[in-house]
């Protein structure tokens, strides 16, 4: 009840002047019982509402209604949102109650789950003994709005999502610059991810849902991707001053080049006005196919769009560049 009030209050603040029923509709859609859904599908549904807004019906005064989109989070102005960290909060599921170490809320929604262990306890026990139980049978609904998960025993700290296996949890070694000395610590992760502006940027622009053979997978940027993409984005905003020379974003093998491209391109399209076209050029057919498939699997381009904007020859490439495509792969 308290969290619903906080959510309703945030909706009223961010979307003033609407009838009371409009806010009630939005709260109902966000807090919908999604227990029958696969958890990651429910998570994607809530995420879309947070990022794209909630559509509600508002009377138009003539016996009909109009559709209004209510914003749940002000992504551009962090100070317009309410940030709250709850310690040792009890959460009730259908059969069990569990006490969470830390839950970070934005506008009444528990977006970050933090599980802590003593320094003497191996960090993997936070995953094996707590997280598996919480997101599996005990309180799975807690993770429907979840943005990411942070596990720490003070010295060892890792970040993941509700679909991440232990092997896919990763370190967060730097706060704001690649030149910082890398250090695995709880402080680095908290400062690097939970400072309000970084938190909202990370949730909005560095989250994807990838369709795979085994089903939907939620992925968020790793530390180097978050810092690198934001450096590239900052350079892109200075492109005229720099004469179009933006620099080199270098990755080791397996470091997520394709996803960095998705994060960068999607952030530009979302944040900067303009009719942008991204031309993705590779030196191997195999890599060309891999990157195009990543853009399709994450929804950055649709299946039909992917086929239409994938150059099969030099002549086809010239034809695509004359068209109006957001992406061209070659």
Summarize the helices and strands and which ones pair or pack.
Elements: H1 2-14, H2 20-30, H3 39-52, E1 54-59, E2 65-70, E3 83-92, E4 97-106, E5 109-116, H4 124-138, E6 148-152, E7 157-160, H5 186-193, H6 196-205, E8 207-212, E9 215-220, H7 223-237, H8 257-271, E10 278-280, H9 285-297, H10 303-308, H11 314-322, E11 327-329
Parallel strand pairs: 5-6, 10-11
Antiparallel strand pairs: 1-2, 3-4, 4-5, 6-7, 8-9
Helix pairs in contact: 1-2, 7-8
Could you explain the architecture of this structure?
The chain has 330 residues and is of the alpha+beta class. It contains eleven helices and eleven strands. It has a five-stranded mixed sheet with strand order 3-4-5-6-7. A hairpin with a 2-residue loop joins β4 and β5. α1 (2-14) packs across α2.
The percentage of residues in β strands lies in 15-25%
Q: What global shape is seen?
A: globular
Secondary structure: number of strands:
11
Distance between the termini: 53 Å
| Rg, Å, rounded | 21 Å
On the 0 to 100 scale, the average pLDDT is 93
Could you name the ranges where pLDDT drops below 50 across 5 or more consecutive residues? none
Structural class: alpha+beta
């Amino acid at each position: 009840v308290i969290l619903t009030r906080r959510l309703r209050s945030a909706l009223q603040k961010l979307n003033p002047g609407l009838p009371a029923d409009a806010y009630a509709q939005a709260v109902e859609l966000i807090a919908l019982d999604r227990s029958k859904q696969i958890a990651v599908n429910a998570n994607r549904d809530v995420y879309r509402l947070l990022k794209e807004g909630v559509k509600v019906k508002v009377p138009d005064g003539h016996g009909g209604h109009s559709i209004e989109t209510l914003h749940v989070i002000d992504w551009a102005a962090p100070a317009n949102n309410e940030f709250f960290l709850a310690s040792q909060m009890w959460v009730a599921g259908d059969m069990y109650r569990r006490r969470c170490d830390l839950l970070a809320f934005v506008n009444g929604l528990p977006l970050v789950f933090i599980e802590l262990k003593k320094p003497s306890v191996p960090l993997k026990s936070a995953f094996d003994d707590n997280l598996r139980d919480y997101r599996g049978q005990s309180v799975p609904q807690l993770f429907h709005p979840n943005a990411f998960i942070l596990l720490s025993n003070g010295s060892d700290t890792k970040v993941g999502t509700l679909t991440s296996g232990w092997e896919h949890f990763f370190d967060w070694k730097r706060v704001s610059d690649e030149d910082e000395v890398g250090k695995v610590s709880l402080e680095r992760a908290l400062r690097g991810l939970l400072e309000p502006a970084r938190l909202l940027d990370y949730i909005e622009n560095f989250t994807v849902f990838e369709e795979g053979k085994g089903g939907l997978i939620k992925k968020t940027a790793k530390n180097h991707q978050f810092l690198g993409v934001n450096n590239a984005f900052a350079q892109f905003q200075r492109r005229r001053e720099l004469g179009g020379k933006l620099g080199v974003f270098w990755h080791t093998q397996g470091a997520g080049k394709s996803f960095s491209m998705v994060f960068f391109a999607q952030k530009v399209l979302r944040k900067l006005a303009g009719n942008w076209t991204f031309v993705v050029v590779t030196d191997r057919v195999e890599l060309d196919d891999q990157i195009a498939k990543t853009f399709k699997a994450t929804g950055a381009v649709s299946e039909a769009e992917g086929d239409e904007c994938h150059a099969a020859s030099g002549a086809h490439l010239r034809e695509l560049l004359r068209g109006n495509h957001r992406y061209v792969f070659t």
